[in-house]
Design goal:
Length: 347
C-alpha cells in the first residue's frame, strides 16, 4: 500500500510540476482561423441563427484556459490576418476550406514570420483543402503545408487503424502508438515525403478500406527557424471532444511556439516502407506475411525503396473514379509494382 501511495504521489507531483511549468511560461498568443470558403464542417459551424462560438472555438478556448498555455482569438475572416497582426501573435491555427481571401503581401509576411522563427503554424483537418492563387516569392500555400485534398475514401465514421511513425515525439504522445479510430481521412496530391516528418499514418493491414499507397495523417515540418504541424483529424465534434486530440492540439501549439522540443527531420525512408506495406496489404496478404516481407524490405537498397514508394504514389491518380471506369491503366501499373516488391521481399 505504501508503494502504491508513493507512486500515486509521484505521478501527481509530476503532473502538477508539468502544469506549473506551463503556467510559468508566458502565454502563447494564438490566432485561430475557422473560415470556410468551400465545404463547411460542423466544428467550424456557428449555432443555428446565432453568432455564438463554433464547437472548435469553444474547444480551443477550453484547452488554452485549462492548460494555461495559451490565449486564443478566433475569426472566420482571413482578412483579419495582416502583417501588423502577426506582430501580436505567436501561432496561427487554420481549420479552413477553399480559396481564402489572403493577399500576396499578407502571405509573404506570414511566410517570413514563420521562417524567422517568430511564428508557428498549426493546420487541422481541412487546412489541406485550402488554397488560393499566389505567384510571389517563396511557396504557394499548398507547397507550404505540403499537400492538397484529393478525396476522402475514408468517410465520417469509417473504421481505421492509425500507426505512429517517426519515433517518439512530444506532439504525438497523447495517442497510443497504434489505435483503432473512426474519422474522415484525406488522401493528397502535391505531397512531398522529403519535406516532412510523418508522425501518424493509416495502417492498411487492419483498415478495412485499403489503398495501395501511403496515407499520412499527421506530420511536422521545419521551415527556416519556424515550425509547422498538420493533422488530418478533427472532422467531427466528437473528435474535438476526445481528450487525446485536445492534448495533441495543445502539444502542437506549444511545439510550434518552440515551447517543446522535438525533431521535424523528414523521414522519407520510413514513409517509403509504409507505402510498400500499404501495397502489400491492398493485395490482401495475411498480416504475418506482410510483416515478414517488411522486415526484409528494411534492408532494401535506398534508391530502389524511394523509387518504389514514388511508384505507389503514382497509382493514386490512376485509381478508377467510378466502379464502371476503365481499370486497365491502374491494374497494369499496380501489378508490375507488386511483382517487383514481392520479388524483392522473398526470403
Amino acid at each position: 500500500m505504501f508503494r502504491l501511495l508513493t507512486l500515486v504521489a509521484l505521478v501527481t507531483a509530476l503532473a502538477c510540476s508539468t502544469v506549473q511549468a506551463v503556467q510559468a511560461e508566458p502565454k502563447i498568443r494564438v490566432l485561430y482561423l475557422g473560415q470556410s470558403v468551400g465545404w463547411r464542417h460542423a466544428p467550424v459551424t456557428r449555432p443555428h441563427n446565432s453568432n455564438g462560438p463554433t464547437p472548435s472555438e469553444v474547444a480551443l478556448a477550453e484547452i488554452g484556459g485549462q492548460s494555461g498555455a495559451f490565449s486564443v482569438e478566433s475569426t472566420q475572416d482571413a482578412r483579419d490576418i495582416t502583417p501588423e497582426k502577426l506582430k501580436t501573435i505567436d501561432v496561427l491555427v487554420f481549420y479552413t476550406t477553399g480559396e481564402l481571401p489572403i493577399s500576396a503581401e499578407t502571405w509573404q509576411a506570414i511566410q517570413s514570420w514563420i521562417e524567422s522563427g517568430k511564428g508557428g503554424f498549426v493546420g487541422l483537418h481541412s487546412a489541406t483543402d485550402t488554397h488560393w492563387d499566389y505567384s510571389g516569392p517563396s511557396q504557394t500555400y499548398t507547397a507550404f503545408i505540403n499537400g492538397r485534398f484529393a478525396g476522402h475514401p475514408w468517410t465520417q465514421g469509417a473504421p481505421l487503424t492509425i500507426q505512429s511513425l517517426g519515433g517518439q515525439s512530444p506532439v504525438n504522445r497523447a495517442w497510443p502508438s497504434r489505435f483503432a479510430y473512426a474519422e474522415e481521412i484525406y488522401q493528397y496530391s502535391d505531397y512531398d515525403p522529403k519535406k516532412v516528418r510523418v508522425l501518424q499514418a493509416l495502417d492498411f493491414t487492419e483498415t478495412p478500406l485499403k489503398r495501395p499507397w501511403f496515407v499520412p495523417v499527421t506530420w511536422t515540418r521545419q521551415i527556416g527557424k519556424g515550425r509547422l504541424f498538420y493533422s488530418n483529424l478533427g472532422h467531427t465534434p466528437s473528435t474535438w471532444n476526445d481528450a487525446r486530440y485536445r492534448d495533441q492540439i495543445l502539444d502542437a501549439i506549444r511545439w510550434t511556439a518552440h515551447r517543446l522540443p522535438g525533431s521535424a527531420t523528414p523521414n522519407p525512408e520510413e514513409q517509403a516502407l509504409w507505402a510498400l506495406r500499404s501495397l502489400l496489404a491492398f493485395d490482401n496478404r495475411p498480416r504475418a506475411d506482410v510483416e515478414a516481407r517488411m522486415a526484409r524490405l528494411t534492408k532494401a537498397d535506398r534508391t530502389w525503396l524511394l523509387d518504389a514508394a514514388t511508384r505507389t504514389a503514382a497509382l493514386r491518380p490512376l485509381w478508377p473514379e467510378k466502379p464502371q471506369s476503365d481499370k486497365s491503366a491502374f491494374e497494369t501499373a499496380y501489378r508490375a509494382l507488386l511483382a517487383d516488391v514481392l520479388a524483392r521481399s522473398e526470403p
